[in-house]
Protein backbone atom coordinates (compact mmCIF):
# COMPACT_ATOMS: atom_id res chain seq x y z
CA UNK A 1 0.00 0.00 0.00
CA UNK A 2 1.04 3.59 -0.46
CA UNK A 3 -0.19 6.93 0.70
CA UNK A 4 -1.69 9.87 -1.12
CA UNK A 5 -3.50 12.98 0.09
CA UNK A 6 -6.96 13.73 -1.22
CA UNK A 7 -8.71 16.96 -0.22
CA UNK A 8 -6.31 17.15 2.74
CA UNK A 9 -7.21 13.62 3.92
CA UNK A 10 -4.60 10.87 3.94
CA UNK A 11 -5.66 7.85 1.88
CA UNK A 12 -4.06 4.42 1.47
CA UNK A 13 -4.11 3.01 -2.05
CA UNK A 14 -2.61 0.00 -3.79
CA UNK A 15 0.29 0.74 -6.12
CA UNK A 16 -0.77 1.12 -9.77
CA UNK A 17 -4.18 2.52 -8.80
CA UNK A 18 -5.61 4.64 -11.58
CA UNK A 19 -7.50 7.85 -10.92
CA UNK A 20 -10.75 6.32 -12.16
CA UNK A 21 -10.35 3.32 -9.81
CA UNK A 22 -9.63 5.63 -6.88
CA UNK A 23 -12.74 7.70 -7.58
CA UNK A 24 -14.75 4.46 -7.71
CA UNK A 25 -13.42 3.43 -4.29
CA UNK A 26 -14.48 6.81 -2.89
CA UNK A 27 -17.97 6.46 -4.36
CA UNK A 28 -17.55 9.54 -6.56
CA UNK A 29 -19.05 9.52 -10.05
CA UNK A 30 -16.18 10.61 -12.31
CA UNK A 31 -18.30 12.83 -14.53
CA UNK A 32 -19.48 14.93 -11.57
CA UNK A 33 -16.02 16.03 -10.44
CA UNK A 34 -12.81 17.39 -11.74
CA UNK A 35 -9.39 16.69 -10.41
CA UNK A 36 -6.14 18.46 -9.76
CA UNK A 37 -3.17 16.14 -9.20
CA UNK A 38 -0.09 17.87 -7.76
CA UNK A 39 -1.48 21.20 -8.91
CA UNK A 40 -2.14 20.10 -12.50
CA UNK A 41 -5.69 19.86 -13.84
CA UNK A 42 -6.30 16.36 -15.19
CA UNK A 43 -8.19 16.09 -18.47
CA UNK A 44 -11.22 13.82 -18.45
CA UNK A 45 -9.78 11.43 -21.02
CA UNK A 46 -6.79 10.84 -18.75
CA UNK A 47 -8.80 9.59 -15.75
CA UNK A 48 -8.51 5.97 -16.92
CA UNK A 49 -4.83 6.05 -17.70
CA UNK A 50 -3.43 8.21 -14.90
CA UNK A 51 -1.69 6.03 -12.32
CA UNK A 52 -1.55 7.88 -9.02
CA UNK A 53 2.02 8.43 -7.90
CA UNK A 54 3.17 7.88 -4.30
CA UNK A 55 2.46 10.96 -2.21
CA UNK A 56 0.17 12.49 -4.84
CA UNK A 57 -1.85 15.47 -3.69
CA UNK A 58 -5.32 15.33 -5.20
CA UNK A 59 -8.01 17.96 -5.16
CA UNK A 60 -11.50 16.78 -6.08
CA UNK A 61 -13.74 19.70 -6.96
CA UNK A 62 -17.26 20.00 -8.30
CA UNK A 63 -19.96 22.50 -9.13
CA UNK A 64 -22.22 23.24 -6.19
CA UNK A 65 -25.10 25.63 -5.69
CA UNK A 66 -24.05 29.27 -5.58
CA UNK A 67 -25.14 32.76 -6.49
CA UNK B 1 -33.68 40.27 -26.92
CA UNK B 2 -30.70 40.42 -24.64
CA UNK B 3 -27.34 39.58 -26.17
CA UNK B 4 -24.18 39.01 -24.14
CA UNK B 5 -20.97 38.07 -25.91
CA UNK B 6 -22.94 37.06 -29.00
CA UNK B 7 -25.35 34.79 -27.17
CA UNK B 8 -29.01 35.76 -26.98
CA UNK B 9 -31.27 35.29 -23.98
CA UNK B 10 -35.06 35.43 -24.06
CA UNK B 11 -35.25 35.85 -20.29
CA UNK B 12 -33.71 38.84 -18.59
CA UNK B 13 -33.75 37.05 -15.24
CA UNK B 14 -30.65 35.10 -14.29
CA UNK B 15 -30.87 32.62 -11.44
CA UNK B 16 -28.62 31.45 -8.67
CA UNK B 17 -28.43 27.88 -7.43
CA UNK B 18 -27.38 28.44 -3.81
CA UNK B 19 -29.36 28.13 -0.58
CA UNK B 20 -32.25 26.02 -1.93
CA UNK B 21 -33.69 23.51 0.52
CA UNK B 22 -33.29 20.64 -1.94
CA UNK B 23 -32.19 19.99 -5.53
CA UNK B 24 -35.83 19.29 -6.39
CA UNK B 25 -37.03 22.69 -5.17
CA UNK B 26 -34.13 24.36 -6.97
CA UNK B 27 -34.98 22.68 -10.26
CA UNK B 28 -38.68 23.53 -9.99
CA UNK B 29 -37.98 27.12 -9.06
CA UNK B 30 -35.48 27.62 -11.89
CA UNK B 31 -37.93 26.05 -14.35
CA UNK B 32 -40.64 28.42 -13.11
CA UNK B 33 -38.33 31.42 -13.37
CA UNK B 34 -37.83 30.91 -17.11
CA UNK B 35 -34.18 31.83 -16.70
CA UNK B 36 -31.63 30.49 -19.16
CA UNK B 37 -28.42 31.25 -17.28
CA UNK B 38 -27.65 30.11 -13.73
CA UNK B 39 -24.68 30.74 -11.52
CA UNK B 40 -22.83 27.85 -9.90
CA UNK B 41 -19.97 27.76 -7.43
CA UNK B 42 -16.88 25.55 -7.27
CA UNK B 43 -16.08 23.67 -4.11
CA UNK B 44 -14.14 20.68 -2.86
CA UNK B 45 -16.02 17.39 -2.93
CA UNK B 46 -17.20 16.47 0.56
CA UNK B 47 -15.55 13.07 0.96
CA UNK B 48 -18.01 12.18 3.73
CA UNK B 49 -20.82 12.72 1.26
CA UNK B 50 -19.31 12.01 -2.16
CA UNK B 51 -22.54 11.22 -4.00
CA UNK B 52 -24.05 14.59 -3.14
CA UNK B 53 -24.09 16.16 -6.60
CA UNK B 54 -26.94 18.64 -6.70
CA UNK B 55 -26.08 20.08 -10.07
CA UNK B 56 -26.93 16.86 -11.87
CA UNK B 57 -30.65 17.74 -11.63
CA UNK B 58 -30.12 20.68 -13.99
CA UNK B 59 -30.23 20.16 -17.74
CA UNK B 60 -27.08 21.76 -19.11
CA UNK B 61 -28.79 22.19 -22.50
CA UNK B 62 -31.49 24.30 -20.91
CA UNK B 63 -29.35 26.34 -18.52
CA UNK B 64 -26.08 27.99 -19.39
CA UNK B 65 -23.84 27.53 -16.38
CA UNK B 66 -22.15 30.70 -15.23
CA UNK B 67 -19.48 29.52 -12.80
CA UNK B 68 -18.62 32.09 -10.17
CA UNK B 69 -15.39 32.68 -8.33
CA UNK B 70 -17.12 33.11 -4.99
CA UNK B 71 -14.75 32.64 -2.10
CA UNK B 72 -11.84 34.26 -3.95
CA UNK B 73 -10.23 37.00 -1.87
CA UNK B 74 -7.88 38.36 -4.51
CA UNK B 75 -7.20 38.26 -8.25
CA UNK B 76 -4.83 35.31 -7.92
CA UNK B 77 -7.45 33.10 -6.24
CA UNK B 78 -10.13 34.21 -8.69
CA UNK B 79 -7.97 33.37 -11.70
CA UNK B 80 -7.21 29.93 -10.25
CA UNK B 81 -10.91 29.24 -9.69
CA UNK B 82 -11.73 30.46 -13.19
CA UNK B 83 -9.21 28.12 -14.79
CA UNK B 84 -10.56 25.23 -12.74
CA UNK B 85 -14.12 26.05 -13.79
CA UNK B 86 -13.12 26.04 -17.43
CA UNK B 87 -11.27 22.75 -17.02
CA UNK B 88 -14.39 21.34 -15.38
CA UNK B 89 -16.37 21.93 -18.52
CA UNK B 90 -17.83 25.19 -17.30
CA UNK B 91 -17.02 26.80 -20.64
CA UNK B 92 -15.69 30.30 -21.09
CA UNK B 93 -18.43 32.09 -19.17
CA UNK B 94 -17.47 33.41 -15.78
CA UNK B 95 -19.02 35.50 -13.05
CA UNK B 96 -15.97 37.11 -11.54
CA UNK B 97 -16.34 37.70 -7.82
CA UNK B 98 -13.56 38.91 -5.55
CA UNK B 99 -14.79 39.49 -2.03
CA UNK B 100 -12.08 39.83 0.61
CA UNK B 101 -14.35 40.83 3.49
CA UNK B 102 -16.69 38.07 4.68
CA UNK B 103 -18.80 40.50 6.68
CA UNK B 104 -19.87 42.75 3.79
CA UNK B 105 -18.93 40.53 0.83
CA UNK B 106 -18.29 43.77 -1.02
CA UNK B 107 -16.16 43.26 -4.14
CA UNK B 108 -12.56 44.46 -4.26
CA UNK B 109 -12.49 46.84 -7.25
CA UNK B 110 -8.74 46.72 -7.85
CA UNK B 111 -8.41 42.95 -7.69
CA UNK B 112 -11.56 42.57 -9.82
CA UNK B 113 -10.09 44.80 -12.53
CA UNK B 114 -6.77 42.95 -12.36
CA UNK B 115 -8.47 39.56 -12.69
CA UNK B 116 -10.67 40.82 -15.53
CA UNK B 117 -7.61 41.90 -17.51
CA UNK B 118 -5.95 38.50 -17.05
CA UNK B 119 -9.04 36.40 -17.77
CA UNK B 120 -10.14 38.35 -20.85
CA UNK B 121 -6.67 37.73 -22.33
CA UNK B 122 -7.15 34.02 -21.61
CA UNK B 123 -10.38 33.99 -23.60
CA UNK B 124 -12.92 34.04 -20.80
CA UNK B 125 -16.27 35.78 -21.16
CA UNK B 126 -16.02 37.80 -17.97
CA UNK B 127 -19.04 39.19 -16.13
CA UNK B 128 -17.59 40.98 -13.12
CA UNK B 129 -19.58 41.46 -9.93
CA UNK B 130 -18.77 45.00 -8.88
CA UNK B 131 -19.70 47.77 -6.57
CA UNK B 132 -22.02 50.27 -8.24
CA UNK B 133 -19.17 52.56 -9.27
CA UNK B 134 -19.63 54.21 -12.68
CA UNK B 135 -15.91 54.85 -13.16
CA UNK B 136 -15.06 51.24 -12.37
CA UNK B 137 -17.78 50.06 -14.75
CA UNK B 138 -16.06 51.96 -17.58
CA UNK B 139 -12.66 50.58 -16.61
CA UNK B 140 -14.01 47.02 -16.60
CA UNK B 141 -15.59 47.55 -20.02
CA UNK B 142 -12.28 48.90 -21.32
CA UNK B 143 -10.62 45.76 -19.98
CA UNK B 144 -13.00 43.62 -22.04
CA UNK B 145 -15.76 42.63 -19.62
CA UNK B 146 -18.71 41.16 -21.54
CA UNK B 147 -21.19 42.72 -19.11
CA UNK B 148 -20.99 44.50 -15.77
CA UNK B 149 -22.84 43.36 -12.67
CA UNK B 150 -23.24 46.20 -10.20
CA UNK B 151 -24.74 45.39 -6.83
CA UNK B 152 -28.06 46.73 -5.60
CA UNK B 153 -27.05 46.03 -2.01
CA UNK B 154 -24.74 43.48 -0.37
CA UNK B 155 -25.15 39.80 -1.27
CA UNK B 156 -27.95 38.02 0.53
CA UNK B 157 -29.29 41.10 2.32
CA UNK B 158 -32.60 41.43 0.42
CA UNK B 159 -32.33 45.20 0.87
CA UNK B 160 -33.09 46.10 -2.73
CA UNK B 161 -31.44 48.86 -4.72
CA UNK B 162 -29.52 51.14 -2.36
CA UNK B 163 -27.31 52.25 -5.24
CA UNK B 164 -29.93 53.63 -7.65
CA UNK B 165 -28.08 56.89 -8.35
CA UNK B 166 -24.87 55.10 -9.34
CA UNK B 167 -26.64 52.34 -11.27
CA UNK B 168 -28.49 54.95 -13.34
CA UNK B 169 -25.14 56.45 -14.39
CA UNK B 170 -23.68 53.02 -15.13
CA UNK B 171 -26.64 52.22 -17.38
CA UNK B 172 -26.44 55.58 -19.12
CA UNK B 173 -22.73 55.11 -19.91
CA UNK B 174 -22.74 51.39 -20.63
CA UNK B 175 -21.40 49.90 -23.84
CA UNK B 176 -22.04 46.36 -22.57
CA UNK B 177 -25.12 44.90 -20.86
CA UNK B 178 -25.71 45.89 -17.24
CA UNK B 179 -26.92 43.09 -14.96
CA UNK B 180 -28.00 44.26 -11.52
CA UNK B 181 -26.87 41.60 -9.10
CA UNK B 182 -27.07 41.05 -5.37
CA UNK B 183 -29.45 42.29 -2.75
CA UNK B 184 -32.64 42.20 -4.82
CA UNK B 185 -35.05 40.94 -2.16
CA UNK B 186 -38.47 41.37 -3.75
CA UNK B 187 -39.94 41.32 -7.24
CA UNK B 188 -40.50 45.09 -6.95
CA UNK B 189 -36.73 45.57 -6.60
CA UNK B 190 -36.17 43.59 -9.81
CA UNK B 191 -38.88 45.59 -11.57
CA UNK B 192 -37.22 48.80 -10.41
CA UNK B 193 -33.88 47.75 -11.89
CA UNK B 194 -35.54 46.87 -15.18
CA UNK B 195 -37.54 50.12 -15.28
CA UNK B 196 -34.24 51.97 -14.85
CA UNK B 197 -32.99 50.28 -18.01
CA UNK B 198 -30.90 47.45 -16.61
CA UNK B 199 -30.49 44.73 -19.24
CA UNK B 200 -31.05 41.91 -16.75
CA UNK B 201 -31.03 41.04 -13.06
CA UNK B 202 -29.54 38.14 -11.16
CA UNK B 203 -31.51 36.76 -8.22
CA UNK B 204 -30.63 33.93 -5.89
CA UNK B 205 -31.34 34.40 -2.19
CA UNK B 206 -34.75 36.05 -2.53
CA UNK B 207 -36.06 33.08 -4.50
CA UNK B 208 -34.22 30.32 -2.66
CA UNK B 209 -35.27 31.37 0.85
CA UNK B 210 -38.85 32.38 0.00
CA UNK B 211 -41.74 30.59 1.70
CA UNK B 212 -42.57 29.07 -1.68
CA UNK B 213 -39.51 29.37 -3.93
CA UNK B 214 -41.36 28.15 -7.03
CA UNK B 215 -44.04 30.83 -6.79
CA UNK B 216 -41.45 33.46 -5.90
CA UNK B 217 -39.47 32.51 -8.99
CA UNK B 218 -42.58 33.08 -11.08
CA UNK B 219 -43.19 36.41 -9.31
CA UNK B 220 -39.67 37.57 -10.16
CA UNK B 221 -40.11 36.47 -13.78
CA UNK B 222 -43.29 38.55 -14.06
CA UNK B 223 -41.67 41.53 -12.37
CA UNK B 224 -38.67 41.45 -14.69
CA UNK B 225 -40.95 41.29 -17.69
CA UNK B 226 -43.14 44.12 -16.37
CA UNK B 227 -40.14 46.30 -15.59
CA UNK B 228 -38.61 45.76 -19.01
CA UNK B 229 -41.91 46.46 -20.74
CA UNK B 230 -42.23 49.69 -18.75
CA UNK B 231 -38.71 50.76 -19.67
CA UNK B 232 -39.33 50.12 -23.36
CA UNK B 233 -42.71 51.88 -23.17
CA UNK B 234 -41.00 54.96 -21.74
CA UNK B 235 -41.88 56.15 -18.26
CA UNK B 236 -43.51 59.52 -17.75
CA UNK B 237 -41.34 62.27 -16.38
CA UNK B 238 -41.11 62.81 -12.62
CA UNK B 239 -42.04 66.28 -11.41
CA UNK B 240 -42.25 68.21 -8.20
CA UNK B 241 -45.68 69.84 -8.50
CA UNK B 242 -48.95 68.03 -8.99
CA UNK B 243 -50.45 67.93 -12.46
CA UNK B 244 -54.16 67.11 -12.62
CA UNK B 245 -55.12 64.06 -14.60
CA UNK B 246 -58.67 65.36 -15.15
CA UNK B 247 -59.35 68.48 -17.29
CA UNK B 248 -58.99 71.71 -15.36
CA UNK B 249 -61.53 73.44 -17.58
CA UNK B 250 -65.30 72.93 -17.81
CA UNK B 251 -65.97 73.51 -14.11
CA UNK B 252 -67.83 76.79 -14.69
CA UNK B 253 -71.12 75.23 -13.60
CA UNK B 254 -69.72 74.74 -10.08
CA UNK B 255 -68.78 78.32 -9.50
Any chance you could write out the topology, listing elements then pairs?
The complex is a heterodimer of chains A (67) and B (255).
Chain A: E1 2-6, E2 9-13, H1 19-26, E3 34-37, E4 40-41, E5 57-65
Parallel strand pairs in A: 1-5
Antiparallel strand pairs in A: 1-2, 3-4, 3-5
Chain B: E1 2-4, E2 7-9, E3 13-16, H1 23-33, E4 37-44, E5 64-67, H2 75-90, E6 93-96, H3 109-121, E7 125-130, H4 134-142, E8 149-150, H5 164-173, E9 179-181, H6 187-195, E10 200-203, H7 205-208, H8 213-233
Parallel strand pairs in B: 3-4, 3-10, 4-5, 6-7, 7-8, 9-10
Antiparallel strand pairs in B: 1-2
Please describe what this structure looks like.
The complex is a heterodimer of chains A (67) and B (255). With 67 residues, chain A is mainly beta. Chain A has one domain (2-61): Ubiquitin-like (UB roll) (Roll), CATH 3.10.20.30. Chain A contains one helix and five strands; from the N terminus they run E-E-H-E-E-E. Chain A has one helix at residues 19-26; strands spanning 2-6, 9-13, 34-37, 40-41, 57-65. In chain A, a hairpin with a 2-residue loop joins strand 3 (34-37) and strand 4. The longest helix of chain A is centred in the middle third of the chain and has 8 residues, at 19-26. With 255 residues, chain B is of the alpha/beta class. Helices cover 36% and strands 16% of the residues of chain B. Chain B contains eight helices and ten strands. In chain B, helix 1 runs parallel beside helix 8 and helix 4 (134-142) runs parallel beside helix 5 (164-173). The radius of gyration of chain B is 20 Å and the shape is globular. Chain B starts with a strand and ends in a 22-residue tail after the last helix. The mean pLDDT of chain B is 94. The interface between A and B is medium-sized, with 23 and 36 residues.
Amino acid sequence: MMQIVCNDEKKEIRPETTLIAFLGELGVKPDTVFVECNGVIIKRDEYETLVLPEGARLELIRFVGGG
Amino acid sequence: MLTIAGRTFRSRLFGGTGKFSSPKVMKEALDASGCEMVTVALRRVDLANPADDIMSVLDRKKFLFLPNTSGARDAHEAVRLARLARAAGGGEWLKLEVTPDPRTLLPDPIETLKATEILVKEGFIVLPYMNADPVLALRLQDAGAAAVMPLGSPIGTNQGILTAFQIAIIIEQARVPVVVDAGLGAPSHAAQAMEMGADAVLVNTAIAVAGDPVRMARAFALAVEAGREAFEAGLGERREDAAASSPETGLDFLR
